[in-house]
Design a protein that fits this description.
There is one protein chain. This protein is of the alpha/beta class. The protein has 2 domains: 59 residues, DNA polymerase, domain 1, CATH 1.10.150; 293 residues, TIM Barrel (Alpha-Beta Barrel). The chain is built from 12 helices and 12 strands. Strands 1-2-3-4-7-8-9-10-11-12 form a 10-stranded mixed beta sheet, with helices on both faces. A two-stranded antiparallel ribbon has the order 5-6. Strand 8, helix 6 and strand 9 form a beta-alpha-beta unit. Helix 6 runs parallel beside helix 9. The longest helix is centred in the C-terminal third of the chain and has 15 residues. The structure holds S-adenosyl-L-homocysteine. The site of S-adenosyl-L-homocysteine has 20 residues, from strand 8 and strand 10. S-adenosyl-L-homocysteine binds next to strand 8 and strand 10.
């Protein structure tokens, strides 16, 4: 079911209350003669209580609720569009206060409810096959904007359920916005927040070695996924331009350090682009590159993007690739297609929304899936 895109949205976009620091909110409360405990009350309503209006916060004085509503929004993003696929995958297009748009996805599966979130408006990494990077990066998301994606997706779930997993695989390069991401995850991963286990958070990166080590040094059991996409530097630089100045050796060294430091196995993601990087020789070279590492390989059959020349791999190419890697002793999964009847591949719904004349991508799937 595709709900119609909202044509006109209110332009009166006030600050979201969650984006205020404790000091800012505290000062505002003092001006209004209110105790500081209101901060945790309001946050609890939004983060745990699923409130989407100040009026719903029934243990706050009525005057305070009205004063808050005059100056702030409870949640500062607006749902500009939402889609639901037949398999239950749901996607939200959120409009930010500056009028820009981001996407996030909820993937319900058996006993899991996975949220796939964005960390930037657009992306600056320029991977040649990816829809998110086509217009470059506009800006980093704030920690509040990252947290709001999680809250809005959680609010789509039944009352007695919560989010179980987070994959940071939406738009943007998470490690280029590490501080804001970590601040949002800190709220998400405590019982008084969204109650998600840090072990069930996967951060996917193009491979920024210094930031990978910073992530490891946090001492949190986050799961790291590294987007390799090629078994040698020459091919990787063609597909992932940032590779020109970083290189596979430095990325693998940082990923090895991540494993040594956290004890958490790294997942290597590999988008299979038909006729580009999906030959058996690539698989054998990838197996040699990963060698004896204790690693997972997550193969992602390409979701075609309108206007880009890359194609899905054939089923035969995928099967052969998997078999070669398994023969070399690697632990391999092929990412399942999710949300196939909605624009669930990252950046694609936003493209349709912002450029209505652009053709709608004919192959779509979710960027988020079970890598944990
Ligand atoms: N910047 C992060 C997150 C990107 S999205 C990173 O590079 O890892 C998560 C994964 O989906 C990445 O491996 C990305 O390369 C891949 N991806 C992006 N567009 C895709 C598409 N159209 N089809 C299949 N995988 C895609």
């Amino acid at each position: 079911m595709n709900l119609p895109l909202a044509p006109i949205l209110p332009t009166d976009l006030r600050r979201g209350i969650l984006s205020l620091s404790e000091a800012e909110f505290g000062a505002w409360l003092r001006q209004h003669g209110q105790p500081l405990m209101r901060i945790s009350q309001v946050r609890r309503w939004l983060i745990q209580g699923r409130a989407e209006s100040f009026g719903a916060m029934t243990d706050l004085p009525v005057d305070l609720r009205a004063a808050l509503a005059r100056e702030f929004e409870p949640l500062e993003t607006q749902v500009a569009a939402q889609t639901q696929a037949r398999d239950g995958t749901r996607k939200l297009l959120l409009r930010l206060r500056d009028g820009r748009h981001i996407e996030c996805v909820l993937i319900p599966e058996r006993d899991r409810r996975t949220a796939c979130v964005s960390t930037q408006v657009g992306c600056g990494m320029g991977c040649v096959f990816c829809a998110s990077g086509l217009g470059g990066v506009a800006r980093n998301l704030t920690s509040g904007e990252i947290l709001e994606q999680l809250i809005r997706l959680r609010n789509l779930t039944p009352r007695d359920e919560r989010l179980t997993n987070i994959v940071v695989m939406g738009m943007g390069e998470p490690l280029a916005n590490l501080d804001n991401l970590v601040a949002a995850l800190e709220v998400a991963c405590v019982p008084a927040g969204l109650g998600i286990s840090a072990r069930h958070v996967t951060v996917s990166t193009v491979g920024l070695p210094t930031k990978i080590r910073q992530l490891a040094a946090l001492g949190k059991p986050y799961h790291l996924a590294v987007s390799l996409h090629a078994p040698n530097d020459a091919l990787r630089t063609q597909i992932v331009p940032t590779n020109a100045r970083i290189g596979l050796a430095a990325i693998l060294a940082a990923a090895d350090d991540f494993f040594a430091c956290t004890g958490r196995r790294v997942t290597y993601e590999y988008v299979l682009l038909g006729g580009v990087n999906d030959a058996p020789t690539h698989a054998r070279e990838l197996a040699r590159l990963l060698g004896r590492r204790i690693a997972h390989v997550n193969l992602i059959p390409y979701n075609e993007v309108a206007g880009l020349p890359y194609r899905q791999p054939t089923a035969q190419a995928v099967a052969t690739f998997v078999a070669e890697l398994r023969r070399a002793g690697l632990n391999v999964k092929v990412r399942k297609r999710k949300g196939a009847d909605i624009d669930a591949a990252c950046g694609q719904l936003r493209r349709r929304f912002e450029a209505p004349s652009a053709p709608v991508p004919h192959a779509v799937a979710s960027e988020a899936a079970s890598v944990q």
